[in-house]
Amino acid sequence: MNKTLYDKLWDAHVVRKNEDGTNLIYIDRHLVHEVTSPQAFEGMRLTGRQPWRKETILAVPDHNVPTTDRRVSPTDPAARLQLQTLDSNCTEFSITEFPIHDVRQGVVHVIGPEQGATLPGMTVVCGDSHTATHGAFGALAFGIGTSEVEHVMATQCLVMKKSRSMLISVEGKLGAGVTAKDLILHIIGQIGTAGGTGCVIEFAGDAVTELTMEGRMTVCNMAIEAGARAGMIGVDQTTIDYVKGRPFAPRGEMLTKAEIAWRELHSDPKAKFDRIIRINAAAIEPQVSWGTSPEMVVGVRGVVPDPAQEQDSVKAESIRKALVYMDLTPGTSINEIAVDKVFIGSCTNGRIEDLRAAAALIRDKKVAKSVTQALVVPGSGLVKQQAELEGLDTIFKEAGFEWRQPGCSMCLAMNADRLASGERCASTSNRNFEGRQGQGGRTHLVSPAMAAAAAVYGHFVDVREIA
Amino acid sequence: MQPFTRQTSIVLPIDRANIDTDAIIPKQYLKAIGKTGFGPNLFDDWRYLEPGEPYMDHSRRQINPDCILNDERYLGAGILLTRDNYGCGSSREHAVWAMVDYGIRVVIAPSFADIFFNNTLNNGLLAITLDTTIIEQLFAEVASNEGYTLTVDLEAKTITTPKGEVIPFEIEAYRRKRLLEGLDDIDMTLLQANAIRAYEERRKAKVPWLF
Ligand code: SF4
Question: Backbone phi, then psi, for A393, in 5-degree steps?
Answer without folding.
Answer: -60, -40
